Input
Amino acid sequence: MKRKHLLLEIVVVLVTIGAIYGFTTKSSTPNLPTFADGYSIGDEATDFELKDVDGDMVSLSDYPDAKGYIVIFTCNTCPFAVASEDRIVALDQEFKKKGYPVIAINPNNPEVQPDDTYELMQAKAKEAGFTFPYLYGGYKTVYAAYGATKTPHVYLLQKENGKNIVKYIGAIDDNVRNGDAVKERFLANAVNELLAGKEVTVKETKAIGCSVKQ
Output
């Protein structure tokens, strides 16, 4: 009996600590970062405000006419992210005019990964010809709220009744290393299904890339 009481007391203490410090598997407030899962399919993704490489502050609300958003966590030097750059530009060109612009966020802490400083992000955006916002500061809270663990890591959002609902999470396609060898365009297929008024068939895939540097 004493052992049961002791175990119960331990559980209560752990739950209390979790409530204080936010060690939860899913935050009850969508915009708060968690230490575990981040967003799941069907969750509401709240807005954020981060600095673009042009020096402007960018948020999802800056696109009032958008039907949704292609949020991609990426970085400067990860080989998988570099191999995806042309595809990300192509996705923005393909879907921005249809209502789904690309919003790229660098989730790496530049103190841990010096190649991801703001100045080097500016150089990367110019060199790679980015046609979309490339946002700095995602390492502070945004990456954790989403649950991004890789670069690249994709979150497709759709506006529904004033909310940004997560419809797809995972990889851009089935060959992150070689764009010429792609057979399944997971992200593009999901966007096209939403544009056709259909439910996304493949809602989640495994994001393959470099780990987020924190």
Observations:
- The chain has one domain: 30-211.
- The first strand starts at residue 50 and ends at 52.
- The helical segments are 2-21, 79-95, 118-128, 142-146, 186-195.
- The CA atoms of residues 5 and 17 lie 18 Å apart.
